[in-house]
Amino acid sequence: xxxxxxxxxxxxxxxxxxxxxxxxxxxxxxxxxxxxxxxxxxxxxxxxxxxxxxxxxxxxxxxxxxxxxxxxxxxxxxxxxxxxxxxxxxxxxxxxxxxxxxxxxxxxxxxxxxxxxxxxxxxxxxxxxxxxxxxxxxxxxxxxxxxxxxxxxxxxxxxxxxxxxxxxxxxxxxxxxxxxxxxxxxxxxxxxxxxxxxxxxxxxxxxxxxxxxxxxxxxxxxxxxxxxxxxxxxxxxxxxxxxxxxxxx
Length: 249
Hints:
Strand content: 25-35%
Largest sheet: 6 strands, mixed
Number of strands: 11
Order of helices and strands: EHEHHEEHEHEHEEEEHE
Number of helices: 7
Distance between the termini: 46 Å
């Protein structure tokens, strides 16, 4: 079994949000795929001619399913899986299921070759967003332990854990509301334009210099990121050295 961790979906700024207490490292899904080794690919090329290519594709698909279908059946026996059986185990927006199953169908992957039903050669198991970050991590750990115990000697099994970051938007909004007063009225270069931050009908915005009607809404996360970059804190809101002047962001 080949296990690897995919962190490509984590934004470069993500670790800073985690470090500052506004986010937590999370897991999004696990991708499980049957992959031939280079030796097997070469052997398959030598064994089949162009004339019997169609038959070879069907035989290979059936062989992959004979490995991957029982594996998914075993996973479903040990974890509560949504969209795997005909009857769902719990409501979708509940925390009572662990893994959301998805795979392709032979009507898409081998259309016109006479096969029907699920193509298990590649499937994904997504974690339940209604569960806590800690619960998703625990389910992921149990799943990887299960796969390691059952499939450690399987050279064809490729397992990829897609990592993500969970953001505490409630805390971000709360703290951004407190910090907006530090930016309001400040002259600033924002998005390559000179201007000022201000409130417009209760909405925090940036107005470019000389623009009477043009306003850009500034998100809560942008407010906090700007304050971090400028070193602004609540202590500077009452006439401190960082509470006034120009900034560049």
